[in-house]
Amino acid sequence: MVTTTAIKPIKVQKSTSLRIKELDYNNITFGKLFSDHMFYADFKNGQWGDAQILPYGPIPMSPATSALHYGQAIFEGMKAYKNDKGEVFLFRPLDNHKRINISAERMAMATITQDIFMSGLTELVNLDRDWVPDTDGSSLYIRPFIIGTDEFIGVKPSENYRFYIITSPAGKYYNEPVKVLVETNYIRAVEGGVGYVKASGNYGRSLFPAKLAQQRGYHQIIWTDARNHRYLEESGTMNLFVVIDDVLITPPLGDTILAGITRDSVVTLARDWKMKVQERKVSIDEVLDAHKNGTLEDAFGTGTAATIAQISQIGFEGKDYFLPPVEGRIFSNRVAKELDNIRKGKVADVHNWMYKIG
Ligand SMILES: *Cc1c(COP(=O)(O)O)cnc(C)c1O
Fold it and tell me: Which of 165, 188, 61 minimizes the C-alpha distance to 116?
């Protein structure tokens, strides 16, 4: 569904009881406290309109709302950063806009216009800019999402949609090295499925296998291909990378891999640094062989929440394999630092990834 709507000015209703005082910048619990305002726009009669910013709060809805029953619900995750001068930037927001529309397309939902996505985002974050923390490693997490809003429980694509944006301050992500379990029973994604889009149901289905892994002492699952459970796909809800013999390897994009913006940024920086990069299938056998002969140098997940999550231990078929100490990892430490520096404006933004607000 392609929509073209010229944006009308966003209606703004400011909160009269600001909660920003509740924010303790040194003690932020991720995802629990939301900023003072939220944004939404409605898709009705084939058009987006009624864009508004209003005080953050509950959303009244019919129990028959279609998203609640058949899962026409998609989302994005992105962050705003504040530099030393108090300027606020988004990281690659146009890529999130493109991606939410790929998700919308696959879920037979209305796509969102770039002007509504970007003006909603920039006006909301600008209004709540005091909520963007500036302490080391902190940011404002931004959650745009679209849900089907028909009050109808027949199975068909909704005709009405609502696009929301809410935001939540995020403190320094505690980058504890992760222990992962290679999953050979449950699957996250399959060819022809929806693994490549940010559909809510992808997360719902992953929680039970993740809980089982956690009960066994692992933090996260490494998903394998649905057919043979041999090829590694993603690490929890992050893209997966390994470094074997100085070559950076990550599974290729396709139906079963989410095209992470952090993934793309890591690949881009590695190529800038003249590192050898391969986007190709990588099997558990190859990784364990490399482990055995001492060429498995690094393994990590990438995503907006943690940026880089280094893997310390891989569990497979009842055995655990330990990776080199994280302090000594050359690539993952370097790329994590570089991304941090780009986002905080400490190094040149040669790829034009930062988008200034206000
Ligand atoms: C969101 C997501 C990622 C990471 O994407 P980023 O754009 O880097 O945040 C990776 N895998 C899955 C399954 C995801 O949903």
Answer: 165
